[in-house]
């Protein structure tokens, strides 16, 4: 896993508000870690493993961008809501938490299970629905051997879909 080499083609996404990671400088078609590679570092499985891939990660593994392509066969589509499927906000935040967990664990000698202690200042600005690609952004703001704090955002259709601050803590081995 490494950051994208310089000289890449800039992407056309220009969000409506400032983002915690400059998406204009990232090749969103790149893959820094596949879904299978992510599973080595996060404990989430089956329908709760939300991220499709890590698109970009900085050299220090403190910032990353991941993506989720909403296909329509996700467990929540049928019931949230039948007339107009919208990704639940709690799952958007969970996707950001999974990326934060991945960032924390790729720097550890042994991956751990992290539980989230706090979600603050969550704001939902845009719906995410079938056919959308949600880009999940994460920027770690504090880290110790047991705890970490991150800012997370989601971008869909050139708009910030959600943002929040989260805190996680190591609770055991993966």
Descriptive overview:
The chain has one domain: Hotdog Thioesterase (Thiol Ester Dehydrase, Chain A). 13% of the residues lie in helices and 36% in strands.
Number of separate strands: 7
Overall structural domain count: 1
Radius of gyration: 15 Å
Strand order within the widest beta sheet = 1-2-3-5-6-7-4
Helix proportion of residues, in percent? 10-25%
CATH architect. name: Roll
Sequence stretches where pLDDT stays below 50 over 5 or more residues: 1-9
Number of helices: 2
Determine the mean pLDDT. Answer: 91
Instruction: Kindly report the CATH topology.
Output: Thiol Ester Dehydrase, Chain A
Order of helices and strands: EHEEHEEEE
Main beta sheet strand tally, sense and closure = 7 strands, antiparallel
Overall spatial form: globular
Helix/strand/pairing category: mainly beta
Q: Give the end-to-end Cα distance, rounded to a whole number of Å.
A: 20 Å
In short:
The protein has 174 residues and is mainly β. The chain contains 2 helices and 7 strands. A 7-stranded antiparallel β-sheet has the order 1-2-3-5-6-7-4.
């Amino acid at each position: 896993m490494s950051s994208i080499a310089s000289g890449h083609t800039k992407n056309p996404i220009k969000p409506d508000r400032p983002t915690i990671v400059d998406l204009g400088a990232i090749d969103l078609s790149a893959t820094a870690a596949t879904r299978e590679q992510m599973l080595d570092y996060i404990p989430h499985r089956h329908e709760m493993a939300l991220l499709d891939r890590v698109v970009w990660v900085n050299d220090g593994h403190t910032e990353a961008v991941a993506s989720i392509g909403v296909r329509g066969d996700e467990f929540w589509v049928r019931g949230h809501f039948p007339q107009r499927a919208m990704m639940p906000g709690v799952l958007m935040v969970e996707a950001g938490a999974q990326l934060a967990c991945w960032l924390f664990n790729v720097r550890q000698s042994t991956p751990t299970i992290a539980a989230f202690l706090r979600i603050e200042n969550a704001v939902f600005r845009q719906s995410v629905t079938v056919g959308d690609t949600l880009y999940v952004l994460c920027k770690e703001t504090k880290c110790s051997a047991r705890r970490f704090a991150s800012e997370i955002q989601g971008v869909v259709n050139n708009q910030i879909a959600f943002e929040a601050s989260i805190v996680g803590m190591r609770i055991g081995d993966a």
